[in-house]
């Protein structure tokens, strides 16, 4: 595994309430090429607290990438996305919506809220690993990210 261009592990925040999808994402990232630290929150309220370094997350690192599920309790992914993109200190964090929804209105709204990508979760393990590996390859090795 290689480190990021900055010479450190890449910080990834996963906002996902399904424990099975969390495990799949962890396994997929373990097989990846880039050394990373995966942080997991279970709902949109926790995601925003992590991003803003509030409460129990006051020492949380700033994520290099957010993998965001749309359907979460307390605050959904699109609400998180909207608040992030309205916050000057958070809007440059790349957001990949990784969800089970194939609804056209969810796709359109996510891009209208400035998601960087919208991916539908495959149901099989190999497909899931392929999707997460593609995200890792593109967003963590190919794309030039803005400085923190």
Annotation, overall tally of beta strands: 5
Spans of at least 5 consecutive residues with low confidence: none
Strand order of the largest sheet: 2-1-3-4-5
Helix proportion range: 25-40%
What gyration radius follows from the Cα positions, in whole Å? 14 Å
> What is the beta-strand fraction?
15-25%
Largest sheet: 5 strands, parallel
Averaged pLDDT: 86
- How would you sum up the global shape? globular
What are the secondary-structure elements, in order, as H or E?
A: EHEHEHEHEH
Structural class given helices, strands, pairing?
A: alpha/beta
Total number of helical segments?
Answer: 5
Calculate the terminal CA-CA distance, rounded to whole Å: 22 Å
Give descriptors for this structure:
148 residues, alpha/beta, 5-stranded parallel β-sheet, 5 helices, globular
Can you walk through the features of this model?
- This protein is α/β, with parallel strands linked by helices and 148 residues long.
- The protein has five helices and five strands; from the N terminus they run E-H-E-H-E-H-E-H-E-H.
- It has helices at 19-30, 44-51, 77-86, 104-112, 125-142, and strands at 10-15, 36-41, 65-68, 95-99, 117-120.
- It has a five-stranded parallel β-sheet, with helices on both faces.
- The protein starts with 9 loop residues before the first strand and ends in a 6-residue tail after the last helix.
- The model has no long low-confidence stretch (mean pLDDT 86).
